[in-house]
Design a protein that fits this description.
Elements (H helix, E strand, L loop, with lengths): L1 E6 L5 H19 L3 E5 L3 H8 L5 H9 L2 E4 L19 H4 L4 E7 L12 E7 L18
Parallel strand pairs: 1-2, 1-3
Antiparallel strand pairs: 4-5
């Protein structure tokens, strides 16, 4: 049995993570894969329950899981100058290094470019993803 942690995150994570979990559950059911799902608080939910955006019970549970799904966190909305309101440093804690972003265009959806099917793999151990590294336009080129 595979053990997967579910961390909703904040903001849009509350909407997109449950939908991603639905897809993952359907795929697991179709293939017969048994998965134990464990919802774990991070971000605002973690702070409400445990006084920190990355509570120790969540860290301990994630370390015992085979993997997890983490939604976006709303660190820009967190109060400043309070060390309990930080962007949860899960990437550093678990030595994760890759941001994998599949991009695909669909014929029935309007888009700038047609026939796009690419996966971006970005090393992210240097810190935040910053749009200032874009050399032309908005990054949508």
């Amino acid at each position: 049995m595979l053990k997967i942690g579910i961390c909703l995150g904040d903001d849009i994570g509350l909407e997109v993570v449950p939908e991603a979990v639905k897809v993952m559950k359907a795929a697991a059911a179709k293939t017969g894969l048994e998965v134990a799902w464990q919802e774990l608080p991070v971000g605002v939910a973690g702070h409400k329950l445990h006084g920190h955006t990355m509570p120790q019970p969540t860290v301990d549970a994630l370390a015992q899981n085979d993997g997890w799904l983490l939604g976006p966190v709303g660190h820009n909305a967190y109060p400043r100058n309070d060390p309990t309101w930080i962007s949860p440093p899960l990437r550093k804690k678990f030595e994760l290094f890759a941001s994998i972003k599949p991009v695909r265009s669909y014929p029935n959806l309007p888009s700038m470019h047609k026939n796009v099917d690419i996966v971006f793999l970005r090393e992210v151990n240097e810190g935040m993803q910053y749009s200032g590294v874009v050399v032309a336009g908005s990054g949508e080129f």
